[in-house]
Specification:
This protein is mainly β. The protein is about 0% helix and about 45% strand. It contains two helices and 40 strands. The strands form nine sheets. Strands 14-3-8-7-6-9-13-15 form an eight-stranded mixed beta sheet, with no helix packed on it. A six-stranded mixed beta sheet has the order 12-20-17-23-24-27, with no helix packed on it. The longest helix is centred in the first third of the chain and has 4 residues, at about 135.
């Protein structure tokens, strides 16, 4: 494997300290030679300062005078070489424009541009390789002009890598689950960009940009007192002008947030593509614990009404049985957003005429519906309706706290019709069950009982 030093190291002491760019380590770009070959794709590994080509990496290359994308594949047998078979160059001097990590469909051959997504609003730092996720968001590009079959291309990075050295200045161990960076509104840290190799420009090219990036650690970081840990974030290139702000938030597994904000001075800061911007942030030092505003509990309404009208679209869920042939007798179903528990000795289903039907109810084959409980409320009224034919059939509907023949009286059951009937309910307490009970007074009724409407009224305790 060959490591190609492509990133310039820039030291950014931005947070509550002076800003400086350390240029003692300059860019030292090795060259990629293109020849000819085909293979599968992988990502290029990135360790913060180096990129390492792997077997299966490839470049999509625009060659002036050729109408299609030319695919150059990494030749692991010849270190640093990429190859493309059956390529006939149009002239003795040719211009090559190369992209790594870009689909051919996203390359404009005529204008030598690529439409790409740089960075991401949410990133995950691996435990095994703290910088490997940078490569997910980093597009490499380069060009070589006026050459023949020996092409040297200096590949450039498209993102800026932001390095945070977190220092625990507290006198206790903290466990960190993530770091986020937020800049002033209107500044883009991730989004769709256009890489233009004719003008050597990277331009924000859409309206999907985010001014904030959240980095999550694959495994929480145990940071002891005076301990340090490094976090890496990939961002699209951006600049901060006089008065702009950059905020770093460090979040613990207890959801405590240590935050620091820096306002940029007159000279501004440039986060250039291909640079590593580095800074130190101290928990308990320049990053202080933020006491979150605890929202007051919202005022609960004095009453809640649940209406189950099967004629309304979406009230009867898709998993509710629709035919007696389904042979469903029991189950929990979400009606109007609440769970109702059905228990029946006969098939239950929703008819094509939008009725909840119990097929074959008798005095010995009954059905019940366990009504939902709501924390902080108690059920006090149940309103039911059936069909007018039920007046002659004599199917009875009762509302009971405990299902028992001894609890059924002439005062708590009704023979329903299409006109809604309201049952007053008095439960022992808010955690008491309440049932709709369906039955017939004879054992040979052999018909069906329908419900066309259910409304439940709950009062605040």
């Amino acid at each position: 494997m060959r490591k190609t030093l492509l990133f310039t190291i820039l030291i950014l002491s931005m947070l509550f300290a002076g800003c400086s760019h350390d240029t003692t380590q300059s860019s030292n770009n090795d060259y990629v030679t293109l020849t000819v070959h085909h293979n599968t794709t992988t990502r290029v590994d990135f360790d913060g300062y180096h990129s390492t080509w792997s077997d299966g990496d490839y470049l999509n290359v625009v060659v002036d005078g050729i109408d299609d994308i030319c695919v150059f594949n990494y030749n692991a047998m010849t270190e640093g070489d990429f190859v493309c078979s059956n390529l006939v160059l149009p002239s003795s001097e040719n211009d090559f424009y190369a992209f790594y990590g870009v689909s051919a469909d996203d390359i404009d051959i005529e204008n030598k541009t690529a439409t790409v997504t740089l960075g991401s609003p949410t990133q995950v730092q691996s435990k095994e390789s703290a910088m490997s996720h940078i490569a997910q968001y980093d597009i490499l590009y380069g060009k070589s002009l006026g050459v023949n079959n020996s092409i040297d291309i200096s590949m450039n990075h498209s993102v800026v890598a932001i390095k945070f050295n977190m220092i625990n200045s507290l006198q206790e161990t903290v466990t960190i689950k993530g770091v986020s960076v937020t800049v002033s509104e209107g500044i883009v840290l991730s989004g769709t960009h256009s890489i233009n190799l004719l003008d050597d420009e990277i331009i924000y090219a859409a309206e999907d940009g985010s001014n904030s990036v959240q980095l999550l650690f694959e495994e929480p970081i145990l940071l002891e007192a005076d301990g340090t840990h490094t976090a890496w974030i990939a961002a699209s290139p951006f600049e901060l002008a006089d008065g702009d702000t950059i905020t770093v938030d460090i979040t613990t597994t207890d959801d405590e947030v240590y935050s620091c904000t820096k306002t940029v001075s007159a000279e501004g800061l440039v986060f250039a593509a291909g640079s590593v911007m580095s800074t130190s942030v101290g928990l308990g030092d320049n990053c202080q614990l933020v006491k979150p505003d605890v929202p007051s509990e919202p005022e609960l309404p004095s009453e809640i009404t649940i209406t189950v009208d099967p004629t309304v679209d979406g009230v009867i869920p898709s998993d509710f049985p629709t035919s007696v042939e389904d042979k469903v007798t029991n189950g929990e179903f979400l009606l109007s957003g609440y769970t109702f528990g059905f228990e029946s000795e006969v098939p239950l289903y929703c008819t094509t005429s939008n009725r909840i039907r119990f097929e074959g109810i008798t005095s010995t084959k009954t059905a019940s519906i366990l009504l939902p409980r709501i924390d902080g409320y108690i059920l006090d009224k149940v309103t039911l309706a059936s069909i007018d034919e039920n007046k002659n059939r004599g199917y009875r509907f009762a509302v009971l706290e405990t299902i028992s023949e001894d609890n059924i009286t002439t005062e708590n059951y009704e023979i329903l019709t299409s006109k809604p009937t309201t049952f007053d309910v008095t439960l022992s307490g808010p955690n008491s069950n309440c049932y709709i009970y369906v039955y017939h007074k004879t054992s040979n009724a052999n018909k069906y009982a329908d419900l066309t409407y259910i409304q439940l009224h709950y009062k605040k305790i």
